[in-house]
Specification:
25% strand, five-stranded antiparallel sheet, Luciferase, domain 3, single chain, Rossmann fold, GMP Synthetase, Chain A, domain 3
Length: 508
């Protein structure tokens, strides 16, 4: 088996490469379909373009562009050429992009044309030599330049341990950390998912997820590409468009928010999805009531699984067998999980503790953060996930909580410290705390609890408006509450559990 993920992907294409690989039915202009042969050709030209710009093996390519097949081609070109792909959330503001570029030092940035001027400023500040553009319809200097390339860069000889991608995830320090994922990490996880979920070239995946996120890029795309399946790409989740396209699909992947929105109308019913073989959910906890309502309405059980930026997917409910609401199933092939007590000993089934994972899917560490990497790994290569879990008598993994106060809103990770730091920098603020509370649509949402300096005035609208200038909207708290003091324990630590209880119904 090849050690290059790109070689493995192209080897998995169907024998008949004239079959459609991707189609984009909601695109108003620009190209709307690619065969597997066309996808491979476009990828080879893009990889040659990158090499022609002077990029060398291991150089980073940062991409902040709207979802498009051309953006996927940029990713595949990185795999083919031995470059390292760095996706950036399209909602990131200038300061967020500036930090990532300064930390990763990419040789090339691909951005939306509307952000070209500010991206050039960021690139100049951090020594990035090249900036290309790409819009949602596939137009921009990246596509124009790639179309002119006539040679095809050979597939780079990548070792399994070579970096394929760096995905940034924030942390308790507030500073984003770059999780380094190798060709071997991504290949092992993609094959495990393809085989566990029974993907074949006869499948059609309805793809409505963003691709700057591991769920849409690695889980969804790799399952399709490694099986030669067709993808119907939607630029975003649009309920009406999903309902139109479902009759043409066999599989669908979503976050819990997608399912609550589908269930919001009676036009989503058993007849509409009678031909579907698989619905999966991830990136956030799926409420048991959503699971049960979906099964009652359609006769189908959503398959919930569990993963992280640092590891890809770790566990999955079974394809065959009972899919239990409120659980994330069993370890995937090759993956080990264990629950550890505070004394560092493995706990027996039925007891709650810290979840650790080990396997070929687990990343090698954080980019340029050796101390943080060492802190997160236990002896024997076990990665401390920061999640609190229990494994029941039948082996199903139950996620009980998150040790690091992570909030998952609409499938996106929100780390309180990052937002708290911005709020605390406001001249009117003495201190703040961000906690996650239940939200019917997003699963969970952040609320800010703020203590003002004596004599200062600040209201919810002003605080939220300032944050929207600094960070992506999904990170911005839905509400802000002003209090005289934050509850603390005897050690002086803010008791966020009390705040979560107090404001539990804030977003109801």
């Amino acid at each position: 088996m090849p050690t290059s993920l790109y070689s493995l992907i192209e080897m998995s294409f169907p024998a008949d490469r004239s079959k459609v690989a991707i189609e984009v039915p909601d695109r108003a202009r620009g190209r709307v379909s690619w065969t597997f042969a066309e996808l491979a050709g476009a990828t080879a030209r893009a990889a040659s373009l990158f090499a022609g710009l002077g990029l060398r093996h291991g150089d980073r390519v940062a991409v902040q562009a709207e979802k498009s097949p051309e953006a996927l081609i940029a990713y595949l070109a990185c795999l083919r050429g031995g470059f390292v792909f760095l996706p950036m959330n399209t909602a990131y503001r200038t300061d967020e992009v500036d930090y990532l570029v300064g930390n990763a030092e990419p040789a090339l940035i691909i951005c939306d044309p509307a952000r070209e001027a500010e991206t050039h400023e960021i690139a100049a500040r951090h020594g990035t030599a090249h900036v290309l553009t790409l819009d949602a319809e596939g137009f921009g200097s990246f596509s124009e330049a790639a179309a002119k390339v006539r040679d095809a860069l050979p597939v780079a000889d990548c070792a399994s341990s070579d970096l394929a991608a760096i995905l940034y995830t924030s942390g308790t320090t507030g500073k984003p950390k770059g999780a380094m994922l190798s060709h071997g990490n991504l290949a092992a996880n993609g094959i495990a998912l393809r085989d566990s979920w029974r993907f074949t070239e006869e499948d059609v995946l309805l793809h409505a997820l963003p691709i700057f996120h591991a769920h849409g890029l690695f889980v969804a795309c790799h399952c399709a590409l490694l099986s030669g399946a067709r993808m119907i790409w939607l630029s975003k989740f649009d309920r009406a468009e999903v309902l139109r396209q479902l009759p043409r699909a066999s599989t669908f992947m979503g976050v819990p928010t997608f399912y609550t929105r589908l269930l919001a109308g009676e036009d989503f019913n058993a007849r509409l999805v009678a031909h579907m073989r698989l619905f999966t959910s991830g990136s956030a906890p799926l409420l048991a009531e959503t699971f049960e309502e979906f099964r009652s309405r359609t006769g189908l059980a959503i398959l919930e699984r569990y993963g992280m930026t640092e590891t890809g997917m770790n566990t999955s409910n079974p394809y065959d067998g009972e899919r239990r609401a409120g659980t994330v199933g069993f370890p995937l092939p090759g993956v080990e999980v264990r629950v550890m007590g505070e004394d560092g000993r493995e706990l027996p089934r039925g007891e709650i503790g810290g979840l650790e994972v080990r396997g070929p899917n687990v990343f090698s560490g954080y980019w340029r953060m050796p101390e943080k990497t060492a802190e997160e790994f236990a002896e024997g290569g076990w990665f401390r996930t920061g999640d609190v879990a229990m494994i029941d008598a039948d082996g199903y993994v139950h996620l009980v909580g998150r040790a690091k106060d992570l909030i998952i809103s609409g499938g996106y990770n929100v780390y309180p410290k990052e937002i708290e730091t911005l709020i605390d920098e406001m001249p009117e603020v003495d201190e703040s705390a961000i906690v996650g509370v239940p939200h019917k649509d997003f699963g969970e949402a952040g609320v800010a609890v703020v203590v003002l300096r004596e004599g200062s005035a600040l209201d919810e609208a002003a605080l939220i408006a300032r944050l929207k200038e600094k960070i992506a909207n999904y990170k911005v708290p839905k509400h802000a509450f002003f209090v005289e003091s934050l509850p603390r324990n005897t050690m002086g630590k803010v008791q966020k559990n009390l705040l979560r209880d107090r404001y539990r119904d804030a977003c109801a």
